Amino acid sequence: MTPPCADAAGGDGFEAFLQAQRPVLVGYLCRRVQEEDAKDIAQEAFVRMLRYRAYPRDQLKALMYRVATNVLLDRARRDRSRGAPMHVSLDADHDAMASDEPAHEERVESQQALVLVRAAILQLPERCREVYLLNRIEGMSYTEIARHCGISVKAVEKHIGRALRDLRERLAQQERPGGER
């Protein structure tokens, strides 16, 4: 494991790292949003990065991109929700205002399915579960997972394959009549 960020002056080097990465991160974000928004998102990402100040430098760069992407997604969600109309006219056609929300039965079915999936994931062997969640939930690439876990990319592929196979089998068992459902 690489030691935490440190500079020759005895400081932690974190600010220098962020300063050096700023133009690259803004360039990355400019491919997705306008320059002013990219600068704002980068700044917000750097503020969020303060909690990771003690992380080793080799992990900070990937983490910085993940945090910036999350800020970008958070802003998109927020902007989408702000675009909704703030009031409804009394003359509006109420039949035309169907809710985008799923029906209660659909929500209950989705929640039950989620409980089954979570249970199936928890039944995976520990390392297999960890690799699967790093890929599917954290969005890490196989190479990033291999580096993070100290294993080969081939081992990551095997863990992901096993997780998918086991999850498919467990969920299929629960769907069959007489299954554990």
UniProtKB/TrEMBL annotation:
CDD domains: Sigma70_r4. The keyword Transcription applies. It comes from the Bacteria. Keywords: Sigma factor, Transcription, Transcription regulation. InterPro entries: RNA_pol_sigma-70-like, RNA_pol_sigma-70_dom, RNA_pol_sigma70_r2, RNA_pol_sigma70_r4_t2, RNA_pol_sigma_r2, RNA_pol_sigma_r3/r4-like, WH-like_DNA-bd_sf. Residues 116-167 form the RNA polymerase sigma factor 70 region 4 type domain. Residues 21-80 form the RNA polymerase sigma-70 region domain. The keyword Membrane does not apply. Belongs to the sigma-70 factor family. ECF subfamily. This is Sigma-70 family RNA polymerase sigma factor.
